[in-house]
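User: Hello! I'm new to structural biology and keep hearing that structure can be predicted from sequence alone. Could you demonstrate with DUF2029 domain-containing protein? Please show me the input and the output so I can see what each looks like.

Assistant: Of course. The first part below is the input, the amino acid sequence of DUF2029 domain-containing protein. The second part is the output, the predicted structure written as tokens.
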Amino acid sequence: MPHADTTRVSVDEPEPVRPTKEDEVAATGSELIGGPIGRRALLGTSWWTPVRVVALVAIGMFALGMVQKLPCYDGAWFFGASSQYTHACYSDIPHLYQGRGFADGLVPYFDKLSGDMEYLEYPVLTGVFMEVASWLTPGSGSIQYQEQWYWMVNAGMLMVCAAIIAVCTVRTQRRRPWDGLLVALAPAFALTATINWDLLAVALLAAAMLMWSRKRPLAFGVLIGLATAAKFYPFLLLGPLLVLCWRAGRWREFGTALLGAVGAWLAVNLPVMLLAPEGWVKFYSFSRERGVDFGSIFLIITQRTNIQITADTANTYAMIMMLLACAGIAALAFTAPRRPRFAQLAFLIVAAFILTNKVYSPQYVLWLVPLAVLARPRWRDFLIWQACEVGYFLGIWMYLAYTTSGDAHKGLPPEGYQLAITAHLLGTLYLCAVVVRDVYMPERDVVRRAGDDDPAGGVLDGAADVFVLGGAARHPARHAAQLDGPPVEWGSRGPVEGSP
């Protein structure tokens, strides 16, 4: 006789963590939908499992982000330079359909463009994504009609990426599936999702983090390589992984991941590199030659002091600051009393790249959202940061409205935009600060408070330390305690009494 109900979670497995039980902001917010979740839904015995709920919420929020672009879809992209900014609905996608030759059937990297750009200035896998979308776009009708279709096709493909990101985040830290709602409900995520093609790289990186958490270093490396072929920043995660594997003595797994990443990146790039070298190198030369631009600390300095910072000077200072940040993260990894979680250092390295870069486009927040959720799944801190990013999102469009409205000066003057940049910088630094605090004070880490070591750490989860420095070397009991059985919970003076 068939059973009337099935249990999806073994009774021997620990229950998933309820955000509404440990997070007062989540508990208060849950009252809007009927209060904290019950045990039946928590264990997944109903159809509304965490994966399905989070995926549907992510798709719903993405759709709301598309609705927010409606004023531009109806004409602001085409008939008014400043109105697309005053409505905060700008997107690169329709503009580049014609501006990068897709409307004329030009092949990215191989066919030369008219004007100063010459070739498509995006990495190869992103160029493939853009080209596939152009194949699905009708080639008849007015150019406005085609650009609307091109944006809609890209939005549909990017929605799939958004769902992948949400699902991978849920599955990466399996004891904390409901943290995926932070990704799904992130307002900056919805507002910026269709500005550009960044979600492709973010989705590949989210899938890579999932593979690493399942102890599949080769699959992780391949996905990192593909993500780097879509956007440069995912390659940065190999730095934190190197120092963590160094501390844990997991050289074989790191080597496997590195080989997978290099191999996948070459598989995508090498054909274009050999057959269309001038087109392939455009992304890298454009990134190097690009001057000080929106959202960066360099722009504030330029506008406040009237000092003109050249592209070479900005590159030099950005490189120096990034190297210092990398050294600081490496020191953090080796000296922390307990080995940092991979997601914590992954978030810090990408945040450092964003903070030191000579440009910050509003969609770059997408790079950080899933990493921030894995690194610090705390609603209050996450929402503080998101508020700063939404403020920046509005600030940049109002500033562009000011600069494109002529003598009317409708929008936000430079001084106001500088405040928006400062809010973005401070918000990101705040989230970095609480992550660093969690590393040095593991008892404050909400992930480890549940008894886990590094649920997204794959082979690093519960591994022994073989190389430590500073305070970690002077307190071997702390990092050794994670080796046998569940990791202990640490208080300010040592292990909590009664912990295993």
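User: So the tokens describe the shape?

Assistant: Right, they're a compact way of writing down the 3D structure. Reading them back into a model, for example: The first helix runs from residue 19 to 22.
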